Structure prediction request, 251 residues.
Amino acid sequence: MLAATALCLSTANASAAVVDLTPGSGSTGTINGATYSFNKLRGGTGNIQSFVRIQATGTEQGYNTTVSSNSALPFNETYGSFTHNLQLNEIPIIEVSGVDYFEFLLDVNESSGGGNEFISLDLVQIYTSPTPGQNTTNVATLGTLRYDMDAGPNSHVRLDYSLNSGSGTTDMCLYLPISFFAGAAITDYVYLYSQFGGQGTISGQKYGTSDGFEEWALEVMDDSVFLPEPATLALFALAPLFAIRSPRRHA
Ligand SMILES: [Ca+2]
Ligand SMILES: [Ca+2]
Ligand SMILES: [Ca+2]
Prediction:
């Protein structure tokens, strides 16, 4: 399983990708096998459930975890019920053209006008681990790296808050093939680490961070599918089957 993951990452794009979502509807792009899209790949609306909020001025970074106090948060996360642990079997799965993806939503909040509405998403790394509640600042030790936007060249995504202004409206959707998680237990904890604001000002567009929090969320609909979806079980081999029978093994 480790060999398969390494192969997946090593065969990724050879050149840096800039996914520009600032044109709005219809904008989309792929970085290292993950799709960053302005629009949802599947219609409908459901219950949006935040799992991490990140806020700082200029640049910011952070990942989802559950800790006991604000001071225990590793980076620029916002303390409270909107920042917490997440398990693999809590993430909705979307099937597009025969490929199953985990779907993550991003809602950004920036100042409007003067170019401040722009914001860059500079890094996404996703780890899985049997251990919840981690708060290390050494992100590479969080667990098994499942996805790295910057594996190979340094890529980023450009966003414009003013296209979907307001808290609770989705500005970007991230789709990760569930095959990236092969060999994980379905109860493994998922850490989504992201960085924003690193592009600074480009042609008057101020990609640095301002105003309110950036929020990663899941959208759960009445008919959402989660692991262990029968069609996906083969990918997860023996580990998930064991986890299903012993869900508290890693608790
Ligand atoms: Ca900005
Ligand atoms: Ca980057
Ligand atoms: Ca912001």
About this structure: Residues 1-13, 238-251 have pLDDT under 50 and may be disordered.
